[in-house]
Amino acid sequence: MSAPTHGGFATLADPSAPVRLVLVGAGGMGRAWLRTILANPETELVGVVDLDTSLAEAAVSDAGLRPGEGGVLVGTSVSAVALATRADAVVNVTVPGAHHPVNTEAVFAGLPVLCEKPIAPTVAQAISLAATAEASGQLLMTSQSRRYYASIAAFREQIVSLGRLGSATTEFFKAPHFGGFRDEMAHVLLVDMAIHAFDAARFLLDDDPIAVYCEEYNPSWSWYAADAAATAVFEFAGGVRYTYTGSWCADGLETSWNGTWRVNGEHGSAGWDGDSAPTRQLVPQQGAPAEIEVGTPLAAVPEEIAGSLVEFVGSLRDGRVPSGEVHANVLSLAMVEAAVRSAESGVRVVIAEVLEQAYAQAVADEPRDDVREVLAAWGTAAAGLAAPALAPR
After folding, report:
1. Fewer Cβ close by (within 10 Å): the C or N end of the chain?
2. At the topology level of CATH, where does 150-294 sit?
3. Do domains 2-146+305-326+351-386 and 150-294 have the same CATH topology?
């Protein structure tokens, strides 16, 4: 188990030992996380939890491991499996609707959690989880896996060199035939996919949004029941206008899953195709031709969910607050909720209003006295999210 430390949340009692993990959720994404945990020499899979234990046993067996006593323990209770295996932490890969109860059970059982995105289905539940992390003293981190690319880190460095920024754009055009729940869900592009780009925009611009205007529509040939295309224009605190435009029924000339990016500033522009090295072209100096420079990606790093896992483990070892810590991540989810509200209402939506309404809802809905006390002490969403109690002291 974890031991308290100066960082504000519990870190590992033995920082040199492999981190003993319980994986919650054995579906397709759960199996991807299982492989990622096994591939990381600093982690050890000790348990798998799923309401369908046969599914969990199959996932363990298919990975070449033995389920049960003497192997990887399988069960339906997070806290029971964690206690029996002396786990250090939990990786939560359940469906979004289960994120709040699973995260809450885990942190109050003394276990830090790395949770798949979104941290919760609503901003109100995400705010509740931020207060839950404070009340429990445990780290709760969201896996915003698309922050973890060598090329996006190089793109961020190029953006810094552009000086004052004016505009940023993401174009996202794919045509996946998922089948299942996505074909029927409302706001499918905004809710299920756009959070990756919205969160990346906050990371790349090192700034937060204050308002959004969004329009959604469904192309006439769409195989989705609800709107599968959208354009959203966000105003950021520093004045940047960030435009996201995309469609999930756009065959031909598809972008990468990260989209295609362009950022313009006073000293020039930078671009990234979402896959390869970014490019930059600066303003010509003294009439010299402006050359297009290709960025140099940083040394090979673990990417996507492997990168999330590395940062999580590092935080448990040294107490650093990770970039996906729940307080910081709430605003990425708020961008989605604000864009949906704008699309539904046809008006510009102020994100601070979304946060404060969600905060009031979180206080009203919170069933735990200790978490409600934390929320009440915040006073406002802005105050609670700006200076989380889990920050290093």
Report:
1. C
2. Dihydrodipicolinate Reductase; domain 2 (3.30.360)
3. no
